[in-house]
Automatic annotation (TrEMBL):
This protein's record includes keyword Nucleotidyltransferase: yes
InterPro entries: IspD/TarI, IspD/TarI_cytidylyltransf_bact, ISPD_synthase_CS, Nucleotide-diphossugar_trans
PROSITE patterns: ISPD
GO biological process terms, semicolon-separated: isoprenoid biosynthetic process
Keyword list, A-Z: Nucleotidyltransferase, Transferase
CDD domains: CDP-ME_synthetase
Protein name: NTP transferase domain-containing protein
UniProt-listed PANTHER family: 2-C-METHYL-D-ERYTHRITOL 4-PHOSPHATE CYTIDYLYLTRANSFERASE, CHLOROPLASTIC (PTHR32125)
Record-linked Pfam families: IspD
Stored SUPFAM superfamilies: Nucleotide-diphospho-sugar transferases
Domain of life, source organism: Bacteria
Length: 224
């Protein structure tokens, strides 16, 4: 019990804002005004500032937006560090983890900067889960039917939607476990971090229930 409590004390939250936002027509999605005001990065950093758990925020920035991204997260008063984006999401996370290893964190949460409506409750549930699990991710059950298609778009399988879920972020890990996975698989192009964890360790992450409100801004319509 004592070692678990100690393990939980030193963590870092990575906010990814290094992408090109090509599906948003090139406008940097993490900096676009949200309907309620602010932008995704300023909203997220202020939310983290108000919570008690996150004492170290690490921001991955797209170099051409570095100044605006630094300004957006400026209200976070804990430790804040930065690294530039790599050529893929995976490369960006690896560069961040490598830089952060100097701080010897015990856990890390990796979050899309384009999911502005993250809540304290989800962060706290993930943090609690890390006492028992090495890797965790929030999942949303499917509410639409699920079909598998061939290359021509013809339905070739009716899938049981109860066996599938939509993966969200933050994805949470014991730091060494995800650091070793990224270190070993640097040249891949995985779309999220629990898949890198699985590819390296051969173990799947534990899911917890995600939040429907924790949506990702991908297309302009997502801002409505
Ligand atoms: C990490 C992620 O949000 C999990 O659903 C998703 O894979 C990110 O995808 P994107 O294409 O980088 O927005």
């Amino acid at each position: 019990m004592c070692s678990t409590t100690k393990m939980m004390s030193n963590g870092v939250f990575i906010l990814l804002a290094g992408g090109s936002s090509s599906r948003m027509g090139g406008d940097k999605k993490e900096l676009l005004p949200l309907p309620e005001g602010d932008n995704a990065l300023s909203r997220l950093s202020q939310m983290l500032e108000q919570g008690k758990l996150i004492k170290h925020l690490h921001v991955v920035y797209a170099p051409m937006h570095e100044e605006a991204i630094r300004q957006a997260v400026a209200l976070f008063t804990g430790r804040i560090t930065f690294s530039p984006a790599g050529t893929t999401r995976q490369a960006s996370v690896w560069q961040a983890l490598e830089q952060l290893s100097a701080y010897a964190p015990q856990w890390v949460m990796i979050h899309d900067g384009a999911r502005p409506w993250l809540t304290h409750q989800l962060i706290e549930r993930l943090h609690e889960g890390l006492a028992q699990h090495e890797a965790l991710l929030p999942i949303i059950p499917l509410t639409d039917s699920l079909k598998r298609l061939d290359a021509e778009g013809v339905v070739v399988e009716e899938c049981d939607r109860r066996s599938y879920g939509l993966a969200q972020t933050p994805q949470a890990f014991h730091f060494d476990a995800i650091y070793q996975a990224h270190k070993a698989l640097q040249r891949g192009n995985f779309s999220d971090d629990t898949s890198i964890y699985h590819a390296h360790h051969g173990r799947h992450a534990q899911s917890i229930l995600g939040e429907i409100g924790n949506k990702k801004l991908t297309y302009r319509e997502d801002l409505a």
